[in-house]
Amino acid sequence: MWASRTSATSPRSRTPPPWTTYARSPPPSSVASADIDVLIIGAGHAGLGVAARLKERGRHALVVDAKPRIGDTWRERWSSLRLFTPRFMNTLPGLRFPDGADPFPGTEEVADYQERYASERGLDVRMSTRLTRLRREGQGFAAEIGRDLVRARYAVVATGAHQVPRIPAFASKLDAGVLQLHSREYGRAGSLPAGPVLVVGARNSGVEIAAELARTHEVTLAIGSRSTHAPARWRSPTWWRIAQLRNSLSHGWEPPGRWPWPIKPPAGRWIEVDLSRAEREGLLRTVPRAVDAARDAVRFADGRELRPRTVIWATGFRVDDSWIDAPSSDRGVAIGRHRRGPLPGLYVLRVGLLASLYWGGLAVAADIARRR
Predict the structure, then answer these.
(1) Prediction pTM value
(2) Rounded mean pLDDT of 283-308?
């Protein structure tokens, strides 16, 4: 689904391509105090798509992101990860997603595409720029960025949902001799020490990582609840095109800013890897939910214990909206209809596949463009 790391702790290192001259990692001080039209927080697919569409409509948007380089969020995922959606569905306005041998791109390709898109579309993107507070001020918003204060008429939060790793509290009971990584930190099988591996969590990331590690390690997968397996046809670009056409016929030629197509997995979950087959072939074994730990052992709901050399917590993420002064809950700032936030002029693009974030971004840009 995603990916791109060669070590467990740092993105792969390589020379940036020539198009990265847009605003390559300027220091935070490069964002001078100013009044702007639209402030977009997050230089991913959603944020870049909104900025480009607004530019087409004569509106200026400043995009800020804490990462050093556009696409680093993708470069920091594991090396073998690929998107669920085919290339044509990940195209942003005005620049076709490049073709490739595999119809489903890897995350390095997505990262490079985002970087090239920002350059070729001439977007105002400031990297290495961490926004520490966003608050309501008059009819607009005030954003604190380092020592600078930027005022904007509209604010778009496009930081995504994969922000802060969610790890069970009992993980702290494990000895230092047990290597612990969150799925976000996992890079490749060769970066792990020899010995048994426990993967906790059986959603997309957990199952895919477990299946990959089973080729080189003894792997146990702790499952809290079984998720629905994706049909094999989901790996066919033709099926996705048919789904896209069906959606267009049902909703008009401008798809809504939601994930609607005739694919709505139970509770929004699906798994591509055939877990049952992996179990039958003895590639890995499964155990119930992990419930506790002590020293070098993890205990499961059925009372069994395992002494792993490595534990990978594929236990998801939580949203951190503490920097936004707006009504929120444990799931972050509330998102209303058409992705509007709880405050007028605030928009939130958070969850979904790249394609759904793309259409949601177009809806946000259209809504802002109608306002003056």
Answers:
(1) 0.76
(2) 95
